[in-house]
Amino acid sequence: MTVNLSKNREALVAAWQEVLDDKSDTDWALFGYEGQTNDLKVVGTGNGGITELNDDLNSGKIMYAFVRVQDQKTSLAKNILINWQGEGAPVLRKGVCANHTRDVANLLKGAHLTINARLEDDVDEERILHKLSLVGSAYSFKEPRGVEEPQRGPVGTTYTRVIPAKEINVAERDNFWRREEEEEKKRVEVERERKRLEMLKVEEERRQREEREHTEREKRIISSEGKSPPTSPAAEAASLIASKSSQPMESPVRTQTNAEQMRQQRNQEARELIGSRVGQAKAIFSQNTTNVPVTKASAPVKPARNSLAQRINSLNQPQDDTDNLPSNGQTVPPNPHGFEAEEEQFSTIKRSPHTKSVEQTPVEEVKPLPEASPVEVPKEDPVEGIPTEAGLRAVALYDYQAADETEINFDPGDVITHIDRIDEGWWQGLSPDGSYGLFPANYVQLLEDN
């Protein structure tokens, strides 16, 4: 239900205007309801300010107050509308009168601040003045309006006329883009140089790491064996050649005959040494082979090598071969039947990719001394089992670094000759640098001219 303002309208308006009049001493007016009706009436007026108004407020009723106070900052009169809802007022009455506040505010116009109060502390004069100072402006009408401003000149402009010929300067534009292009080229060169230096640094670190690992690996191998590395067959043959070549020369015919005999003898000794080492390597493979199939992936995988390396290294240790060497001036004829029997024995060996053979170094054929007179020397039949020509050849598909002295190194594109397929996973052959040893079979591809 709405509030009834028409019944006592004249009294309400008169009390309100009296508070608004600065010449009147009345500075507050209190309004309330007639009994339990919604008819609004004037309860009382006074000139004692908020303190006097606080004594007339009833904690059990719903009332409205319109008060005039003086702002301490501006020294101006400010009007305050107080919506009083006593703490002891009925709850139902509070709910009904809550909708009357807007109608009362439309009647009592001119309020600078509206306060909702339920207790006497909410109508404290200091608290109300503090709230009023927060909503008001900080100025005073009693002070002078300000100093006189100096006389100002005419207002200028920053407009500049646009000259198309000057703005569209083709030469300047070309110079700009030329400078940009040069700067971009310099930036690209600096970036390329930086990448090159980084690649060199990485390559140097990799090389140093490989050398360090190789040195450590050799030290471990030497320390595990407890003695110096074995002498290769090529070194033994070379020492024999050097010792025999130091003998004095005799007459031309005899010298030629002795030289030819010595050459045949040295070749025979070298073939026997290499053949014995090849036989030992194949014998080891025949004792340790298994029927494990080899699965080839897209990228080559190095075949596994068992603890057989220790046994192979033991075979590479220096041996007393003086018993196998013939005396000076005598030649030992080759035994083809022995090699044929050995080859038949190896043909039944099962292949395995998990073993590896002993490193072998090809023996360089020693050129005969210059002939003093034409002497026919019968040619010696080649011994079976020793590659005298290039034999099987293969081209390297990937880079491979030897793990120990029994293997060889090669780069992609290198051609490996004198290949002996002693096992399905591991072959041995002659690398371009002259070393003879083992290498993984899946790292190379046989040439078609084989």
UniProtKB/TrEMBL annotation:
Residues 203-222 have a biased composition (Basic and acidic residues). SUPFAM superfamilies: Actin depolymerizing proteins, SH3-domain. Gene3D superfamilies: Severin, SH3 Domains. InterPro entries: ADF-H (IPR002108), ADF-H/Gelsolin-like_dom_sf (IPR029006), Drebrin-like_SH3 (IPR035717), SH3-like_dom_sf (IPR036028), SH3_domain (IPR001452). Residues 203-275, 315-386 are annotated as: Disordered. Transmembrane segments: none annotated. GO terms for biological process: neuron projection morphogenesis; positive regulation of axon extension; postsynaptic actin cytoskeleton organization; regulation of actin filament polymerization. This is Putative drebrin. It is found in: Cytoplasm, Cytoskeleton. Pfam families: Cofilin_ADF (PF00241), SH3_9 (PF14604). GO terms for molecular function: actin filament binding. The keyword Cell inner membrane does not apply. Residues 242-265, 315-332 have a biased composition (Polar residues). Residues 2-133 form the ADF-H domain. Belongs to the ABP1 family. Keywords: Actin-binding, Coiled coil, Cytoplasm, Cytoskeleton, SH3 domain. GO terms for cellular component: actin filament; cortical actin cytoskeleton; dendrite; lamellipodium; postsynaptic density; postsynaptic membrane; site of polarized growth. It comes from the Eukaryota. It comes from Nyssomyia neivai. Residues 389-449 form the SH3 domain.
